[in-house]
TrEMBL record:
CDD domains: Ere-like. It holds the Pfam family Erythro_esteras. The lineage of its organism: Bacteria, Pseudomonadati, Bacteroidota, Flavobacteriia, Flavobacteriales. It comes from Gaetbulibacter aestuarii. InterPro entries: Emycin_Estase, Hydrolase/PRTase-associated, UCP036794_erythomycin. This is Erythromycin esterase family protein. It comes from the Bacteria. Gene3D superfamilies: Biosynthetic Protein domain, EreA-like (biosynthetic domain), EreA-like, domain 2.
Length: 446
């Protein structure tokens, strides 16, 4: 029987072996051209999933945008799908594609992301990217303009509102059905958690209303062809209403039920976007590592949970999908201490000594790294899951060791990894001139 000392020595030996393998493969990351080898490895993949270890880190957004620009320019990707709400992101899509009625500038477009956590998309890093994308599209025909879309399911009220505005002048019968759905949700103020609690206590739901609305819209969808994307957007908002109702209704059951509704919705939306963009479509996804990295390589699978990374990998051939994780050793981040709290710049402490991030810090001697994990899937040095940092929009650094690490089989979770050793907080848009934060609101639910 092995002693604790022997186990400790074995763990150290294994870490040293992993560190040496990373050193032999990793490229120091300082400038865009340092991504050359990674882009070559991506090859002809149709789905490139780009993660992030937090929702509030400047460098994750910066390098994700740099890599995305190169993929669009050099490999002809069709659109970016993000972990964001469909109505808000559709306004961005109209802006970058120069559609009629778009906002005057990127700042005005981004300021309309006003539901907590606003900083996740309402930040100067995103403004820089969408201005670049608008300029890129300026040289393209309508068919070849690159889009920007929200994949998420949270926007129950906003999607119903968008439907009402569109259908009022397009399809009066569908408009009346949308009114029925709105009336059903009105007692809850379109607040998803209130709806979840109410339907848990009293088994009366709004499922029939939103399903009937979607069915009616789908039966007449071709009549909505009033601009290049009206058909897609109308059906998408109806789908959000259906799946958001389901998401909030399953929320109170606990377990992975509501998580699965959400990630399956995001994948369904992703596949609809691929169909919309044609046979040669290629997608880039921006989402948290917990959505991008294959769930089967974590303990999520034991809880019956799936995610984007797993579902896309199951639905498509291995060479069609490329998943990239992002991580950090220490720095600062934008987050709230509790849901709905004002955003703060928080300290991200040095990673746990037995974590993946600590190994990368040592392997890179404090430098940023980029490398692929191809060929390591059956390597015995990776046969034990590493603690892997994950920070959400809610963060309490003093309790990080108790809930911000996900045990992960890294080579199975990602095809490549980008490590930024020391990171800094995002630059939010929703700040008053004196630097005080505007009170965050979330009128349409969580």
């Amino acid at each position: 029987m092995r002693t604790q000392t022997e186990n400790s020595k074995s763990a150290v030996k294994r870490s040293e072996a992993v560190i040496n393998k990373i050193k032999g493969r990793a490229q120091t990351l300082n400038k865009p051209r340092d991504l050359d080898a990674l882009i070559e490895q991506i090859g002809d993949a149709k789905y490139v999933l780009l993660g992030e270890a937090t929702h509030g880190t400047h460098e994750f957004y910066l390098w994700r945008a740099i890599l995305t620009k190169r993929l669009i320019e050099e490999k002809g990707f069709s659109f970016v799908g993000v972990e964001g709400d469909s109505p808000d992101c559709y306004r961005v899509n109209r802006y970058v594609k120069h559609y009629d009625g778009h906002a005057k500038n990127a700042y005005e477009t981004i300021r309309e992301f006003n539901r907590w956590p606003t900083w996740m998309w309402a930040n100067w890093e995103v403004i820089e990217f969408i201005d670049w994308l608008k300029d890129f599209n300026n040289k393209k025909s309508t068919k070849h303009k690159v889009g920007f879309y929200g994949l998420d399911v949270y926007s129950l009220g906003e999607s119903l509102d968008a439907l009402m505005k569109y259908l009022k002048n397009t399809d009066i019968k569908a408009y009346l059905k949308a009114m029925e759905a709105v009336k059903c949700f009105e007692p809850f103020g379109f607040e998803g958690t209130d709806y979840a609690r109410a339907t848990w206590l009293i088994p009366k739901t709004c499922e029939t209303e939103v399903v009937d609305l979607l069915r009616d819209i789908r039966s007449k969808i071709t009549t909505y062809n009033t601009d290049p994307e009206a058909v897609f957007n109308t059906e998408q908002n109806a789908m959000v209403a259906v799946n958001a109702e389901r998401y909030y209704r399953t929320m109170m059951k606990g377990g992975g039920a509501s998580w699965n509704v959400r990630d399956r919705h995001m994948v369904e939306t992703l596949e609809r976007l691929m169909d919309f963009h044609g046979d040669d479509a290629k997608a880039i996804v921006w989402a948290h590592n917990t959505h991008v990295g294959d769930a089967r390589a974590t303990d999520m699978s034991k809880q019956g949970m799936v995610n984007i990374g797993e579902l896309v990998s199951v639905y498509h051939d291995a060479d069609e999908v490329f998943k990239i994780g992002f991580g950090t050793y220490k720095g600062t981040v934008i987050a709230g201490r509790n849901w709905g709290d004002p955003m703060e710049i928080m300290e991200v402490p040095k990673a746990s000594e037995d974590s993946w991030e600590s190994i990368l810090h040592e392997a890179g001697a404090g430098e940023n790294l980029v490398f692929t994990t191809k060929g390591w899937h059956d390597d015995h040095d990776f046969d034990k899951r590493f603690k892997h940092r994950a920070i959400g929009v809610v963060y309490q650094p003093e309790y990080e060791q108790f809930g911000n690490y996900v045990p992960s089989d890294i080579p199975l979770r990602y095809d490549a990894f980008i490590h930024i050793d020391k990171t800094s907080a995002l630059h939010p848009v929703h700040l008053e001139p004196d630097g005080h934060q505007i009170p965050e609101t979330y009128p349409w639910g969580v």
